[in-house]
Amino acid sequence: MARHLVMAGRLSEDEPEQAYKHARAARRLASRVGIVREAAGIAAYQTGEWAEALAELRAARRLGAGDDSYLPVMADCERGMGRPERALDVIKSPEADRLDPMGRVELRIVESGVRRDLGQYDAAVVTLQIPELRDRRLKPWSARLFYAYADALTEAGRGDEASDWFARAAAADRDGETDAAERYAELEGLHILDTEEDEEGAEETAEETAEELGSEQEPEADDTTAPPAEPVADVPEIVTATDIQFKPADPEILEPVPEEAPEAPAVFLEPKTVEPEPDLDQAAAEPEPEPAPEPERPAEAPDDEEPKAGD
Question: pTM here?
Fold first, then answer.
């Protein structure tokens, strides 16, 4: 079941028929799963199976998987089944007030189409005159909104205004999802040139011309001996695309490298020993040594005393 859902999601844009088959296969395996019924409804809508898409989306909402964002799809299914009144009932339902800006714009586009189906062309134009139409910044819904407004103007017989809005839609449609450029050219009476086809045609014409020139250069064999033709002066030689020969580039000539100079003997000098200068601050901080005490001398005898005998 999960593989079928994955393939349905991958093929939804490029191969909607195959995506629809995978979605139906997943539905057969798990019909009570809400997300499976939701995927089956979207796949059926993309292939134009309006009744089945509407039934599947209703079942998804009952199972709790579908949300209000699919109200524009359900209203468009009612319109596709030829029931515009029921489509208007879905559009005017209370659930429509809970939609995000993207959902509200999509619901207005569907409502404009319903008004045109009912022959209310002016009402279809007025329905799309919402604030998002005058927004100067491009939004994800800008291209579709501009295109729908231009289409409504065309149905209302306002071709000049429609041409202007088709041009705006073409400028906003960067991914080429709409044919706004072709509709604009149709209203303006212009012819769109496909530059890719023109380039391919020019290349084919150049190849054919080269082949014709190459065949003209090859002379046909003749048994009769013809006199040599006189050389024609100042005639440029015709070179075809197959005559061009590519020659290898000339080898690069390297200049001889000069011999290296002889090495000179290295002389090493012994470093001089420099005595450190005394640190004056440290010397000032150290206390000076006390002087050594002088030796005591014997006391001298007074002069009036006579020296004793034996001295």
Answer: 0.59
Tens digits of residue pLDDT in 108-136: 999 999 999 999 999 999 999 999 998 88
Is the alpha carbon torsion for 279, 284, 285, 290 positive or negative?
Answer: positive
- 236, amino acid identity: P
Residues whose CB is less than 8 angstroms from the CB of residue 56 and which lie 6 or more positions away in sequence, other chains included: 27, 37, 38, 40, 41, 44
Per-residue H/E/C for the chain: CHHHHHHHHHCCCCCHHHHHHHHHHHHHHCCCCHHHHHHHHHHHHHCCCHHHHHHHHHHHHHCCCCCHHHHHHHHHHHHHCCCHHHHHHHHCCHHHHHCCHHHHHHHHHHHHHHHHHCCCHHHHHHHCCCHHHHCCCCCCCHHHHHHHHHHHHHHCCCHHHHHHHHHHHHHHCCCCCCCHHHHHHHHHCCCCCCHHHHHHHHHHHHHHHHHHHHHHHCCCCCCCCCCCCCCCCCCCCCCCCCCCCCCCCCCCCCCCCCCCCCCCCCCCCCCCCCCCCCCHHHHHHCCCCCCCCCCCCCCCCCCCCCCCCCC
**Apex 264 CA angle, 261 and 268, nearest 5:** 155
pLDDT tens track for 63-107: 875 578 889 999 999 999 999 999 999 999 998 988 999 999 999
User: Hey, what long-range contacts does 230-234 have (CB within 8 A, 24 or more apart)?
Assistant: none
Residues 6+ positions from 265 with CB-CB distance below 8 Å: none
Name residues whose C-beta falls within 8 Å of residue 188's C-beta, 6 or more positions apart in sequence: 163
